[in-house]
Input
Amino acid sequence: MTTQTVTLGGRQFVIVAKKEYDRLRTLARGTTDEDGWPAFPKADAEGNLPAVQFARVSLARKIIRRRRAAGLTQAELARRAGIRPESLNRIERAKVSADVGTVEKIVRAIEKAESEEAR
Output
């Protein structure tokens, strides 16, 4: 795959071939909704939802919403919570189930950032 990097308005962008862009978009479909949030799973024929995936998406959306409201990047939240940025990224994409201890670290870090912001 050939790529080119350009800088516009102080921001870097990567240019990829249209075919590669389409391939990447196809891979991403189903993992996010039209607004870019992790997508809730579809119900089966009886109207049942897969509980684990539904819980992952619910938690991911709550973390993303609160993180953004606190003005934190994923990297900053991960640093403050004492977890790896890759772990937070997987949690926010609803790819893994976070254990209770990790969720508590994330919540404490967000709450501390919110209280700092309120001052």
